[in-house]
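Entry for the shared binder. Reason: the reviewer on the internal report wants the predicted structure included alongside the sequence.
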Amino acid sequence: MGKVYETIDERLVGWLRKQHIFFVATAPLSETGSLNCSPKGGDSFRILSGSEVAYQDLTGSGVETIAHLRENGRIVVMFCAFEGAPKIVRLHGWGTVVTEGHAKYKELAEHFSPHIGERSIIHIAVNRISDSCGYSVPLFEFKGDRDILDKWVQNKGEDELKKYRQAYNAVSIDGLPGIESDA
């Protein structure tokens, strides 16, 4: 039976830090808009307090999470154990897109290693923390982080990366505003 937690306690912190992948889900307000679920990995997730988390948002081919958060703020982050005992943890909350010009950017950025591919930090005020069994989640063995995105952004360089964001991250697939152009 699943449990709802008052806070991200030390036991959950320890478990969350051991996970190698998490999923972020958002949705637009429109009934016909596209829901989004994105996998995230690497050393990009931070627990800031018992009700506050953040993750480093890296440049990608889409911008759905940013667009949805700017429209309505709703977000859920899900972790599931692919190794060890089965477990799923969901962190529901209200997300804010924090870019370099944002008042909280410098404070949040201190929690992460600098990354040329970073386009924002997603800050989440968590209002519901729950777990469930995860009995049907298959077992997988973690072999390592991929470095393809790192190589891709290094090959592009900062100027080309800005042009890429302007071309591919300015609007969502439903036409919602995405990342503001920094080119």
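Summary line for the report: The chain has four helices and eight strands.
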